[in-house]
Amino acid sequence: MDFYEVLEKRRTIRDFSDREVSDEVLKKVLNTAFKAPTNDHLRQLEFVVVRGRENIAKVIAPLARNMAAFKELVAEVDESDDGDKMAMFADALPKQQKMLMQSGLLIIPFFRQLTWPLLRPVEQSSLNYFASAWCALENMLLAATAEGLGTAFHVPVSDEAEKIKEIVNVPEGYEFTCLFTMGYPAENAFLPKQKVINMEDKIHAGVW
Ligand SMILES: Cc1cc2nc3c(=O)[nH]c(=O)nc-3n(C[C@H](O)[C@H](O)[C@H](O)COP(=O)(O)O)c2cc1C
Q1: What domains does the chain contain, in order, with CATH numbers?
Q2: pLDDT digits (tens, 9 = 90+) for 90-135
Q3: Residues lining ligand 1, CB < 6 A?
Q4: What SS3 state is found at 208?
Q5: Which of 12, 66, 102, 178 to mutate to test the pocket of ligand 1 (most atoms within 8 A of CB)?
Q6: What tens digit of pLDDT does each residue of 173-195 get?
Q7: Vertex 142, ends 138 and 145: CA angle to 5°?
Q8: Atom 10 (ligand 1): residue with closest C-alpha?
Q9: CA of 88, closest atom in ligand 1
Q10: Residue 63: how many CB atoms within 10 A of its CB?
């Protein structure tokens, strides 16, 4: 696939078939995380890979208890009256747990959080570890797309991150960006309407 075609094709897929993703494809995709830019040349990424719906259900159990909190968070941020956004949430909200189990492959991308606690940054660059980890995730999203896979992720809310770190026995000093899944899209996978952006409106010549 041409690179720009990959960019066009990458969409969040929340409905998967049960066709298994091979270890070979998994490793190929994970390898691209280490090609992303990284602060201080660290590349301190680690992946917990969970296969099988039952095993995944155990790891993401804290989500079930938090769905109410997630819905409140969504309601709070929605003061925009944005129809596209609400259509996306209407589809995405009920699928947060199912989408992570359906393909039978869950990946938790961890990164080493040095110096400042993630949730207590003192300046913008304190977030560099986090930013690097998201750059790595974007590489994985694009590589998975190039392999014909769909991707989705859930960003932890409330106490989910702490609970999940305990469940998968992560050493001190590591954080994760999201609960990430990839798999072969279901035939009827729903795609929320994509926003139409006029690039010309987004470019400010010299000053805004
Ligand atoms: C920082 C970030 C957090 C997100 N959190 C979630 C999430 O918790 N659950 C989810 O289903 N999608 C999540 N998404 C996916 C967005 O809903 C999705 O990217 C957006 O609707 C645009 O659709 P597209 O990815 O198909 O282009 C997140 C995306 C980003 C960049």
Answers
A1: 3-202 (3.40.109.10)
A2: 777 778 899 999 999 999 999 999 888 999 999 999 999 999 999 9
A3: 11-12, 88, 92, 96, 152, 154-155
A4: coil
A5: 12
A6: 999 999 999 999 999 999 989 99
A7: 140
A8: 154
A9: 21
A10: 22
